[in-house]
Each structure stands twice: as structure tokens, then as C-alpha cells.
Amino acid sequence: MKYFGQGAEESSGGPEKRVTFEVMKTPDIVIQEERGAQLFSLLLKAQNPEWGETETPLARETADYFRSHPVEPSLLKTIGDFYQEGVDEETLYNLALTYQHPERAQNVLMMAAQYKPHVKDPEGKYHQFLAVLEVFDQAFSSSPLAEKFAVEIERDKMERQKRLGETRKRIETIIDFFKPDSKSTTTRKVSFIPDPLYRANAGRAFSAFPGEQMIISHVENVLNQDHEFSHGIINPIVHKLMERLDDGQKEKLSQMVSVKLKQDYGSGLYSPLCEEFIRTYTEIVARGGKPQTYEDFVRKISNTIEEQFQKFLAESKSLKARCDELGITTMDDFRDKSREYFERFEKNPLRDLMFEFYQEYLRRPDKDSENFEQFVLRRFSTKL
Fold it and tell me: What single DSSP character describes residue 143?
């Protein structure tokens, strides 16, 4: 369906043009195993038993297995060397998705050159990494643990298949809200990748392949699935927005980014903007809520017992770092310093701005003539 939009393509100082956009169609949704990504998750678990999921029986058995059957040291050293040279986990997952899929390599290498220019000789590292996966695959595939992973992945695939109708409805709801231009969001296929080792409260989205978005997200964590899918809509919009903001506007936005987001995503602006656009929608707007107040925060932590708090500290390096900064070591400390913690880490001016902006989007008079991309490009800079 085509809509007439307003203001996304106007020239500076000139009259607004009426532009058309075609809303993206609901993508095909599939569930597929990705051998390379699973092998890399296993290597990460072999390297660090605390990586990823730690609570499930299979995760604990995997950690125990690698303690008694250590991975060839040279394989883990190669991955460690990659990290030393600036190759991050996200890049390695993208490279892992080319395992047994050589047709994907060109796109992954092009994205590495564009977004990770500091990585030297990406093609050489690509071949090195595939060799690591190949050697590890040969060693692991004959183990009794490999069969247990196969069984768990098949169970996961069957469960996702049963929920396919529900997943499609959620994706259609997101599309209906944002009305993404099919030229901006080119996703034609969404592939959900089962991974028994990936932490249930985390997820990843990969868009290195034309028309396809790959998502690692726990079968039960529908909020995260919505979040990861939304990256395919929001990221292209933020990319265009960044080109329109002047240095002063960027600096003002940077000052509004929460300390927590800066800890997780660094000092850049692009990633925090994408995250806040998405989180404000999926966690608040879509649920009819409002941004968190200090009183909300106190209620949220009020029933946390000491054992749970210590578990959270052990599982989250970023939470541990924040608590260390304020001298918090126990749940009693956390309650005593809750105001200080909230003001330092939870208070989120950028989310407040995003929430207000979404309310304005919902109140726009002609909801069919302007999609979210056009609204952002026309209105967001005026809020700064």
C-alpha cells in the first residue's frame, strides 16, 4: 500500500514536498539453525564458563564438559588475538554466519570494511576464523554433548514453530505503528536462530545479508524479539537523522544519554539513539506505560532479597561496576543508596524526550500521510 507522506525529502528552506512511500510487507518468518553461530557460542563458553546462559542444565553441563575436555589452546588463542586487534564479538558472530555459507562472505566483509575500519586485513581474519570453526566442529561434533545440543535445538525450533502465528502478529503490530518505508527497511525475511547458550535476557540482530534479518533471542523473551526486529526499522532512520543534526544538537543529545547506556555502548551517539528509540517504544509506548520515576524504581527493587542481588552482581559486569562506583556491596547498601543510584544511573533524560516525541507522533492529525521516518526527520531536531 502506498501513502503520501510529507517532509522527508524537502530541500532546505524550500516548500515541503509530498512524497510517497510504500510500507514494508510482513516479512517471511523462519526458524533455522546456524551452525557457525552455535559453534562460536560454544567456543565463547569454553573460553569463559560464565559467558552466556549459566543456569540451565545444558549450560552447566557444557561448562563442565569444557573443564574436562579443554578446547585446543591455539583455537582460543586465535580468538583472543582477534580481540587484542580490535575484532569484537559482534564482528565474529557475523563472520560465524558465513560458516557453510560462503555466499554470505562478501556482504559480511563489506560491512566490516564500512563499520569496523580499524580492523586490519578483515579477509585474512575471516579465513583464520573459519579455520578455527572447522577444526572445532570436527572435534566437537563427535562428542556426546553435540547430540544433546541437536536435541535441544530441535525442541526450540518446534516451540517457535507453534508460536509462529503469535510472532507474526507482533511483527505486524510493529510495522503498523512505524509504517516503515520499504526502501529504508529492506527486510523480506526474518530468521530466528535457536541458541541454547545465549542468555535468556539478551539478544542479537544481524543485518549483513540483503533482505534478511537474523535474530538470536530466547523463545520465551518476546520483548527482546520485538526489540531486535525493531532495529531493522529504527537503525536506518537514526542513520539519516544523524546526517541532519548539527554538532550542537548532537552534543545536547550526548549529554542526555544515561550513564548506563554510555557504559554499555560507549561514548558514540548512534547506538544509544537507536537503543532509546527502540526501548522507549517496546518497553513503554507499546505497553501504554510511562518513563520510570524514582518511586517506580524503589518499588521495583523493594522485594529483591540478598541472594538474588548477589546473583545479579555476579552475572552483570556493568551492574557490578555501577555498584562498585557507589560502594554498594549488599542489598541493604543498594536500598540505602537508591536515590543516589537512581540519579546517577537510572535517570534518563533521553528517554523522557523520546517518550514525549512518541506522544506527539501518536497525536499527529493525519496518521496515514506520514510515517515514523518522515516524522522523525521533520520534527525531531525541533525538540532540541
Answer: S
